[in-house]
Amino acid sequence: MARLTPRMKNWLTGLGAHIATATSSGVPAVVVVESATADSDDTLRFTLSAQQLSYVRANLAENPRVAIGPGGIGSVRAAYQFKGNGLIEGSDLVVTVDEIYSTKPGPEAGLRLDVLPFDDVLTFESSRWRDDGPPR
Amino acid sequence: MRLGNDVAKALRTVGSGGAVVYLATSSLEGNPNIVGERFVTLYQEEYILIAEMFAQKTRVNLNENPVGAITLAHPVKGRTWEFSGPATILQEGHADGEVWEGLDVAEALAEWGDWATKEPPSEVPPDIRPPALVQRGVIALRVTHAADYHPERAGRPLSLA
Predict the structure, then answer these.
(1) Is the N end or the C end of chain B the one with fewer CB atoms within 10 Å?
(2) Is ipTM strictly over 0.85?
(3) pLDDT for B90-136, tens place per residue?
(4) Torsions phi, psi of A99, nearest 5?
(5) CATH tag for A6-125 (out of 3.90.1570.10, 2.40.50.320, 2.30.110.10, 3.40.50.2300)
(6) Which of A51, A79, A105 lies closest to B151 in CB terms?
C-alpha cells in the first residue's frame, strides 16, 4: 500500500491535479481538476463535472489505471507522480494510489518513493523543499 | 493541425517565468504515465518539442506506443488546452535525412538539441532548478488533435489556428 505524505495531500487538495487515463490499447486522455479530497492515506477523491465523466468514463470502464500529477504550480513545486486504480462513484473519481514517484528533474527523476520507509520519504521531502503545500 | 501564435506564446515563456506542461503517455497495455515538463516549444506550427531529460518511463512508453497527450499546466490563464497525436524521441544517431511525421530530425535537433545553451533556465528558482541540464534528445509530438480540458468542455475539439 502506498502512503501519501501530508505535503503530497496538501498540494493535491489545494491545487488539484492532471489525471491521465488510457484506453486498454494505450491511447491517453487527461482530465484536469482544481481540487481533491484525501479520503485516507492512500485514497484520493476527485469530483468530476458531467462533461469530464463523459470524457473518461469509457476509458475507466475498460482500464482502471490512472496517473496523477499535481495541478497548477504544483506541476513544478510538487514533483510527484501518483499511480493507482480509479473507480467512478457517482460524480467522483476515487483513486487508490499504489505507486508514488519523484519527478524532480535530474538523478531523482523516476525514483519510486512508496517502496521507501515512510520516515525516509518525509526526510526526502524536507531536505528538498521548504514548503508543506501550496502558498496559502 | 497547424497551431497559431497564441499557442506559441503560451508554450514559449521560458525567460519570463516559465511555462510548464504535462506529458501523458501510456504503455501498450494501458498503464498511463504523466510527468511535468518545463522546456517546451511549438515548432513549425504543428509540433510540440520538449527537452528529453531522462524521462525514463516516457521513453519506454514511446518506444512501444508512440502517442501522447500534452496539457498546459502553468500558467493556465484560461488556456485549458490538451494537445494529442503521434509522439517520439528524436536524438543523435538517427540515419542521415531521417524524417518523422514530416519533421526533419537533424534540423529539429540542431535547433533544440541543446536547450540549456539556447534558453538557459536562469529564471527557475534554485530549489526547483535541475542540478544540471543534461539533455539526451527531444521529445516531439505532432499535434493532430486539440481539445479543451475545462471541466465544462472537457474533450471538446478546439481550433487554435
Answers:
(1) C
(2) yes
(3) 998 888 899 999 999 999 999 999 988 888 776 666 666 666 778 88
(4) -145, 140
(5) 2.30.110.10
(6) A51
